[in-house]
Write a structure and sequence with these properties.
Layout (H helix, E strand, L loop, with lengths): L8 H12 L4 H18 L1 H16 L6 H49 L3 H6 L8
Length: 131
């Protein structure tokens, strides 16, 4: 029994993110792309580790194999640094956008409450406006 797309919380929240990121949407696309690149780079790590372990299993650890082992260990380090070169800045951009989204959403709610006539405010307790 599947969930309808309209009821999917990830899709719902992504739509709201897009709606309240007005004026900053290019950064939303940018950090999503940076996350995709970072994860694509990270996918290489198991392949390199597998190759490293394969070399050790086939040949053992000898002086003859040491340059290859160091090369693959260096590749793991390069993969980690490369991945974080995209992931780290993307997290900062995402955090700044989250602040903007929260501010825009609060502004939307405040504008909704302020649109009520003065009589409504006089007749309703402030707790009523929360809902």
């Amino acid at each position: 029994m599947g969930t309808r797309i309209g009821n999917n919380p990830v899709i719902y929240l992504t739509r709201k993110l897009w709606k309240y990121s007005l004026g900053n949407r290019k950064n939303v696309v940018l950090y999503f792309a940076m996350f995709i690149i970072a994860n694509s780079i990270s996918f290489l790590e198991p392949l390199v580790i597998g190759k490293l372990l394969n070399i050790i299993q086939e040949n053992g650890i000898t002086n003859y194999i040491m340059p290859s082992l160091l090369l693959y260990l260096g590749a793991i380090l390069v993969i980690e640094i490369s991945s974080w070169a995209f992931h780290g800045p993307a997290r900062i951009i995402e955090s700044k956008n989250a602040f903007l989204v929260r501010a825009n959403y609060k502004k939307y709610l405040l504008n909704g409450v302020m649109a009520f006539p003065m009589e409504w405010h006089a007749d309703h307790h402030s707790g009523d406006t929360i809902d």
